[in-house]
């Protein structure tokens, strides 16, 4: 989506709009890259401490997630740019809703996502894209 806003891609494809969700598009969980990095650092520290446990975790912001259409609309607001979104056919095997439960990481690593608002996640990614030009 941000590549479209930046003008390096023509449009984004929404794979299906007939799912049993609030607006017909798939719902997914989004996590800020810095929150993801924080969780990895905490897992590495736990490994170094020699704690004998399974260090496999699901990471996300929790909650209900955001639909693809909501993400496109948010990216339009944050960037102030036109983002052409084309609805294409569903992809085989795509579940209508896929969100993470981070309870294990919260419990075992004392990890919490610090950047949970979708507009903050997109704004941060957009700012990074603009700075790397």
Compact overview of the structure:
The chain is an alpha/beta fold and 133 residues long. 41% of the residues lie in helices and 11% in strands. The chain has five helices and five strands.
Main sheet characteristics: 3 strands, mixed
Instruction: Classify the helix fraction into a percent range.
Output: 40-55%
| Biggest β-sheet: strands ordered side by side in the sheet | 3-2-5
Domains, number:
1
* CATH homology group: UDP-galactose 4-epimerase, domain 1
Model regions low in confidence, pLDDT < 50 over at least 5 residues: none
**What kind of oligomer do you see?**
single chain
Query: Number of DSSP strands?
Result: 5
Q: What is the count of DSSP helices, taking H or I runs of 4+ residues?
A: 5
Rg from Cα: 17 Å
Series of secondary-structure elements, N-terminal to C-terminal: HEEHEHEEHH
Report the CATH C-level class. Answer: Alpha Beta
Overall spatial form: globular
What is the architecture at the second tier of CATH? Alpha-Beta Complex
Classify the fold: give the CATH topology.
Answer: UDP-galactose 4-epimerase, domain 1
Report the span from N to C terminus: 17 Å
β-sheet strand percentage: 5-15%
> Mean pLDDT, rounded to whole units?
93
């Amino acid at each position: 989506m941000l590549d479209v806003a930046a003008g390096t891609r023509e449009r984004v494809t929404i794979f299906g709009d007939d799912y049993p969700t609030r607006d017909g598009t798939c719902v997914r969980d989004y996590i800020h890259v810095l929150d993801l990095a924080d969780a990895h650092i905490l897992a590495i520290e736990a490994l170094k401490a020699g704690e004998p446990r399974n260090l496999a975790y699901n990471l996300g912001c929790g909650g209900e997630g955001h639909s693809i259409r909501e993400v496109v609309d948010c990216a339009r607001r944050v960037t102030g740019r036109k983002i052409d979104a084309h609805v294409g056919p569903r992809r085989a095997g795509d579940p209508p809703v896929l969100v993470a439960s981070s309870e294990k990481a919260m419990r075992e690593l004392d990890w919490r996502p610090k950047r949970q608002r979708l507009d903050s996640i997109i704004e941060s990614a957009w700012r990074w894209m603009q700075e790397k030009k």
